[in-house]
Known about the structure:
Elements: E1 4-14, H1 20-25, E2 27-36, H2 40-45, H3 54-65, H4 73-85, E3 92-98, E4 112-118, H5 122-127
Antiparallel strand pairs: 1-2, 2-3, 3-4
Helix pairs in contact: 3-4
Amino acid sequence: MTDRITLTGLRAHGRHGVYDFERERGQDFVVDAVLELDLAPAARSDDVADTVHYGELADRLVAVLTGEPVNLIETLADRLLAICLADPRVTRATVTVHKPEAPVPHAFTDVAVTMARTRSDPAGAALCPGATAGDGGAA
């Protein structure tokens, strides 16, 4: 599959992290998501119903970013992947979670975790059992 929808630089304030001060103050997280799916039906029909609506996808991803705190951005990425794979047309998804304000005591630009899953991966299948296009998957 070479067709992709890419959402880059989605930013939201969340309270994820290992340390109490990260949970109390929160910080911005930035997400990049790449969804692989067949876009030919949408190209032919010119109908948003034949593709993944990236505005609705962004809403669901932000809900996870601003929702229940987790310790690790690996866990956060896993939850975001579930959202991306919830639409049965998506065959593969890649999510990068950036934590540019991570508590690192050195000058740095970014800390990020990237995770990818296909629908057929055992981990990917476990992320979204019974998910449908409109339910947003597990979060």
